[in-house]
Amino acid sequence: MRLADYLKLHDLTPEMFAEMADLHFTTIYRLIAGDSMPKRSTIRAIGEATGGQVRAIDLIENDEEERQVG
Fold it and tell me: How far apart are CA 2 and CA 49, in angstroms?
């Protein structure tokens, strides 16, 4: 599941989710926009915060799709 879809499904703002995952909110915005490749620690934190619903492949594929469009 894409991170943006997870946030929408759970009615969370990027800021709220960043706090849950112990990440900076700009990291979440960049990942949603596809502006950065996530670090392993970020992938792990997001996986844990979402109970595995957002997986590493979901974050990486989102980044690659955004780069192809841009």
Answer: 14
